[in-house]
């Protein structure tokens, strides 16, 4: 019998939380949403959306695969381009509508926050 290491559970939970949040958000959108241009600046950073996406891929590959879904990518881009207070409010609204995902995010909140901070701190390198 093999046991899963705690790190594997955390990684899986992060991926599920990110995927679930992105998918839930994408499903609540109309079919046609405007997509951010890769050169659009992300508020609160010196980075473009393309740089943030590359930072996600480099630092959180288990999450990055979900950005291959056009609806999830569109919602990700929409949220990441919001000014910080609105971004936080929007994520909170999405979590309120998705209690299962909210529970995962809450359970792993320090790790989620650490990953987000790492992405924003390093995105200018990509």
Characterization of the model:
This protein is mainly alpha-helical. It has a domain of 85 residues. The chain contains seven helices and no strands. Helix 1 runs antiparallel to helix 6 and helix 2 crosses helix 7. The chain is globular. It comes from Williamsia serinedens. Keywords: Signal. This is Hemophore-related protein, Rv0203/Rv1174c family.
Helix content: 55-70%
Distance between the termini: 41 Å
Oligomer category = single chain
- The coarse overall form would be globular
How many DSSP H or I helices? 7
Radius of gyration: 14 Å
Strand composition percent: under 5%
One letter per element, helices H and strands E, the order comes to: HHHHHHH
Q: Which residue ranges are poorly predicted, with pLDDT under 50 across at least 5 consecutive positions? A: 1-6, 23-33
Mean pLDDT: 75
Category by helix and strand content: mainly alpha
- Main beta sheet, described? none
Briefly summarize what is shown.
Residues 1-36 form the signal peptide. By secondary structure, this protein is mainly α.
Helices and strands, with pairings:
Elements: H1 6-27, H2 49-59, H3 61-64, H4 70-80, H5 84-97, H6 99-107, H7 109-122
Helix pairs in contact: 1-4, 1-6, 2-7, 5-6
InterPro entries: MHB, MHB_sf, TAT_signal
Protein name: Hemophore-related protein, Rv0203/Rv1174c family
Keywords: Signal
Label this structure with key terms.
0% strand, disordered N terminus, 7 helices, globular, 126 residues, mainly alpha
């Amino acid at each position: 019998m093999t046991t899963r290491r705690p790190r594997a559970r955390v990684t899986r939970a992060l991926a599920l939380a990110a995927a679930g949040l992105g998918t839930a958000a994408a499903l609540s959108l109309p079919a046609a949403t405007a997509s951010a241009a890769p050169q659009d600046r992300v508020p609160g950073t010196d980075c473009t959306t393309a740089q943030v996406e590359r930072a996600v891929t480099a630092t959180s590959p288990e999450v990055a695969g979900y950005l291959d879904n056009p609806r999830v990518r569109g919602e990700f881009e929409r949220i990441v381009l919001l000014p910080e207070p609105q971004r936080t409010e929007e994520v909170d609204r999405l979590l309120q509508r998705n209690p299962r995902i909210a529970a995962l995010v809450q359970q792993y909140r320090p790790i989620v926050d650490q990953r987000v901070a790492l992405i924003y701190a390093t995105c200018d390198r990509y």
